[in-house]
Amino acid sequence: MTADVIAVSTQPVERFQPVQERGQRAVFCGLTSIIWLHRKIQDAFFLVVGSRTCAHLIQSAAGVMIFAEPRFGTAVLGDRDLAGMADCHDELDRVVAQVLERRPELKSIFLVGSCPSEVIKLDLDNAAGRLSREYDGQVRFVAYSGSGIETTFTQGEDNCLASLAADLPSDTREESRLLVVGTVPDIVEDQFRRLFSQMGIEGVDFFPGSQSTDLPSIGKNTRLLLAQPFLGETLRALESHGATLLPAPFPLGAEGSNAWFRSAADAFGVTAQVQDSVLTPPRLRAEAALGKYRDELAGKSFTMLPDSQLEIPLARFLARECGMTPREVGTPFFDARVMEAEVPLLPSEVDWVEGQDLDPALDRVRAARPDLTVCGLGIANPLEAEGLRTKWSIELLFTPIQGFEQAGDLAELFARPLRREQALEVGSWS
Amino acid sequence: MELTLWTYEGPPHVGAIRIAASMRDVHLVLHAPQGDTYADLLFTMIERDGKRPPVTYTTFQARDLGASTAEKFLNTLQAAYDHHKPALILVADSCTAELLQDQPGTLAETAGLPVPVVAWKWRRIPEKRTGEPAKPFSTWCELSSRLDEMRWKSFPRRE
After folding, report:
1. How confident is the model at residue A405 (pLDDT cuts 50, 70, 90)?
2. Would you list the domain boundaries of chain A?
3. Degrees (nearest 5) of the Cα angle B70, B75, B79?
4. Do B3 and A98 touch (CB under 8 A)?
């Protein structure tokens, strides 16, 4: 580990104050979360109530080509809906019936609010309640907002889970149970379950799970472990049921994963001896896997433009475990409660930014010319054309990156663009 | 309301970006909520253009709706001019911005910028056949007629 060679801030979260920017923001809106949420929750349909722009955004962000019929769609508001000439609730009922006719096996439909539905004040919560009664328990309807007015990118998942959290059955059992919160790929979920089980922590629930009907119960004995760093609203919704948060850094890299598992293990009374015997072998494997990429990454500088909310824990991982030097790290918003265990681990002498002002931020990237820039899809190729190497932040949501077994893969994601540069000697496109 | 499962057709304002991107020294200021910047990737990823399209978005959010989105537009307009120094500014709004009725075109024309400002209006959220492909042509017509008008105004006809 490299904690001894990197200046660490060890500052408490109260004193961590990123520079605030309030200009043009090049981020996706929360609708984009549907791309990974619909893959995870396999019996649900995500119905955006929005405009053609919303439909086009999801299609463009989802990887451009979809060959199977997707479990998401858009109820496109027309002139008559917007002018109040049509009853939007009748229209919505008709579209929902159409969806269910095509997909009778669906167990849940998420009604996803958008910028236009919010501006015309279409009450989707009300519609969800009404439709749930109408379909009489056969299909669950849940409303949340994924609009750009309310949410950036990963906040869509936060709003989705916060809405679902309101519906969770209450848990009156006496023994403590662990709930892992945040969408992780199935392969990661399986690995996590195995390690918890080996430490004697059984009956771990994951939220969301792969079936929308299989909701975890929640109560005062529920202990929460966040698997994703963008779930502040979900956390608060779960806490309102009496659940308590286990503070931990996020399970990214060997160090983050180790601290994350140990936080749960401590809370569940697992002895240090058992923790060591279960967690040491995968940690050593992770460190060995990381070692391969460390030589390539150490000493290289990077900038992160705000996009996925993963920026802070990733900057911690890249600095402490890969020996990279963060120049500027931007994040769409900073949630002190969620980042409480991350902040003391963050390197000092980094320009932290909350929010964005795109043009000046790009000027700073051009001036600093970091070895790697982590940024959104719209910005990456222009920077590449200027001879800068980039990594798409959206890949970090689609790729399994959490846990010990993925630590090496995570480092490789950042090593790949640098390696490609060497192999191809790409300097400039022109 | 119309159920849409696939759509390869962008909204009309993407057509406006396309027009701006097809010319030199033209910059588009688009009144649009956060998230509409996804349109950049149509140009930089799908078409693999080596530079961002010449567009600045207001990217307003909930807190701006509580304050003034019109003011946000004017600040964005000025910042876009200062940074990009275009010879001509196009102004448009996306579907949601149009619902707010800030009329960015009128705001921009009276903002006192030292370059011509061309704003145009279109119908509200598109129905069929008013999507992206239909718009570049009408945008181009609007723009060229306005440019022609301006040219005669600023360059008196030589005898």
Report:
1. very high
2. 13-25+281-424, 30-151, 177-275
3. 145
4. yes
Long-range contacts of A274-278 (CB under 8 A, 24+ apart): A274/A199, A274/A200, A275/A199, A278/A195, A278/A198, A278/A199
CATH code at position B127: 3.40.50.1980
- A30-151 homologous superfamily: Nitrogenase molybdenum iron protein domain (3.40.50.1980)
A161 in Cβ contact with A207 (< 8 Å):
yes
| Inter-residue contact A337 to A232 (CB < 8 Å) | yes
The architecture CATH gives domain A13-25+281-424: 3-Layer(aba) Sandwich (3.40)
Q: Which residue of A has its CA nearest to B61?
A: A149
Q: Give how far the C-alpha of residue B109 lies from the chain's centroid of Cα atoms, to the nearest Å.
A: 13
Residues 6+ away with beta carbon under 8 Å from A65: none
pLDDT average, residue stretch A408-417: 96
For residues A349-378, give the mean pLDDT. 96
Q: State how far the alpha carbon of A194 is from the alpha carbons of A201, A281, A394, in Å.
A: 10, 13, 28
CB A260 within 8 A of CB A250: yes
B109 is a domain residue = yes
Whether B108 maps to a domain, the answer reads yes
Handedness of CA A99, A60, A392, A355 (dihedral sign): negative
In DSSP terms, A226 is beta-bridged to: A181
Nearest chain A Cα to B14, which residue? A53
Q: Which helix (H) or strand (E) holds A111?
A: strand A108-113
Q: Which two tokens stand for residue A215?
A: 């909701």
CA gap A81, A87 in Å, rounded: 7
Nearest chain B Cα to A428, which residue?
B50
Are A327 and A351 contacting, i.e. CB atoms less than 8 angstroms apart? yes
The answer to whether residue B22 sits within a structural domain is yes
CA distance linking residue A136 with residue A87, whole number of Å: 22
Burial class from Cβ neighbours inside 10 Å (0-12, 13-18, 19+) for residue A367 reads exposed
**Disruptive mutation site among A24, A121, A147 for chain B (greatest number of B CBs within 10 Å):** A24
Each residue's pLDDT tens digit, B103-130: 998 899 889 999 988 886 554 434 444 5
Report A:364-423 residues touching B (Cβ under 8 A): 376-382, 385
**What is the total residue count of chain A?**
430
Q: How far apart are CA A331 and CA A377, in angstroms?
A: 16
Residue B4 lies in a domain: no
The domain tally of chain B equals: 1
What is A177-275's CATH topology? Rossmann fold (3.40.50)
Interface confidence, given as ipTM, is 0.91
Full residue range of the structural domain in which residue B95 is found: 12-154
